[in-house]
Amino acid sequence: MNLLRLVALGVFLACLFFSRLNAAELTGRVVDSKSGEPVAARIYLTDTRGNWFFVESAAPEGSAVRYDKTNWLRKESLEKHTTISAHPFKVQLPPGDYTLMVERGKEYFAKTTRLHIGKAGANVEVKLRRWINMAQRGWFSGETHIHRTLEDLPNIIQVEDLNVAMPLTYWVTLSDTAPTSGNKNIGGEIPEGLIQVDPTHVIWPRNTEYEIFSVGKKRHTLGALFFLNHKSVLKKGVPPWGPIARAARREGTLLDMDKLDWPFSMTLPHSTGARLYELANNHMWRTQFAFSKWNSQTTGFLQPPTGAKGGGEEDWINYTLGQYYTLLNAGFALVPTAGTANGVHPVPAGFSRVYVHLPKGFSYANWIEGLKKGRSFVTTGPMLFAKVNGQLPGAKLVFDKDGGELNVTGKVISENRITNLEFIVNGQPVKYLRGRKPAPEGAHQLSFSATLPVKTSGWVCIRSFEERPDGRLRFAHTAPWRMNVPGKPLRPSPEEKEYLVERVQREINRSQGIVSSEAMAEYTAALKHYQNLPTREVPTPEARQTRDEAKLKGWLENMVAHHRFTPHEVRAATGLPLRKIKQKLKDWNLTPDPAPKWPIDAPLKVLPYPGGRHPRIGFLEG
Known about the structure:
Helix content: 10-25%
Number of helices: 11
Largest sheet: 12 strands, mixed
Structural class: alpha+beta
């Protein structure tokens, strides 16, 4: 070691010595404001210069787990906290001013306290106020995507009040590799049975993530699929996916699709029978949004105006929801789940979570059954309670051949102001509500009721968004209610079918000569399935038509060349048959290519908006 390094080390050790010599002790405890009983909590502690500090348990029987993650793409996306059991805590601090923020799961208000620490130290009691009690209402939460050790999880799930945790103890990123040899396994002994922390907080330890980034010796990203609740240890690698998926499902395994923007993901519902989808997923964080580039290009109806390969937080949420709606319309009976990838990403465990309704109280077996049946909603913030025709989410509603009505009732309660509530029928928002009324618990609430007509088979969901003081969004989304009208089946739109076919065809093209012939056969089977889907005729209530060819050419030029409409969107605006639109675009050589750059000194060009209400979104009252 050279002289300069010795001097630097000496200065560092001297600073450390004097800082500890001058340190004072902060002690404290966290209690429920109503009962006065100690509660487990998540603690954030910073000084005025933005330095972070981590508390310890002050009780021999207590536990404290430090969490310190910063996103590798965006350094301001960070999560630095300590989860502390329901015991006193302590920390050594240099004298100065500090901010102490304490949170507990989803059901308590956060509490921020400003502290001045002198040489004598300080003691603080933090009283957390509950704004809702979900267990009393018969709802119990879980997270199906978490990367924490079995030693840390008992502390974490009690702090976050997660009734069920499903850690991905086996994790493999290489093709043809058995999970027992997974390169990212959690390590240690993995029990074969349920771990019960207390009567209402449990851990199922056998769960596997196949997240394939390399096929053979070639870097080739496929994506991730989770095998949850399996009883035996999985001993086969992937791809192909079908054989191990079928074997695992026979022993009660749930297959959870991580994110549908993964390149191979649109093949999974057909090839594996996966029926869970992480609707509140691991790119939705308490801290700043970071993953602004998607794995797969969106199309215009999923990300207006023309599709993209990236975007912001709201774009990601809309893309996530839109892909779910597309697969529901394609006939796959998917139910939503939620996860964070806590342990990898800068986000607390349970930030995204799924609540399952258990009116007779908690049991793991009943929770799994309720999750499979969709008696649930997912959330990153609001609590959403809804019934359709008196039944909870997951219900199947049967009508006669003439259809009928949906009577929708419920309430959303949220820690912060509720921005809106929407009713989604077959992927389209059909009713929009706002609400700001304070709830008795001190939160905000919106009660709602509506009657919606039913003319065809399909599905309905309710979703709600919460506006945070910093401009961020949190949301809740129910599982679907499914409607059956004899002789009038649910079918995707031509645009949705086209999107699914293109996604799978793109994956086939990029995987030629890389993945095995068995895997390619699965892709090809999925492609044929989508190609054979019958489609529905999409109504065009906003359409305007003209028989004047010159005027039509001007309309199409405006729509396609300037507003970059797809042929499907032109149809929605004009009511013309899709075949005629495509022919006219070809005849007149009209394409959605970006227009030449407008000279900076040229007059402003103003064009009429061609579609009235936008055919992609439908602004409704918003």
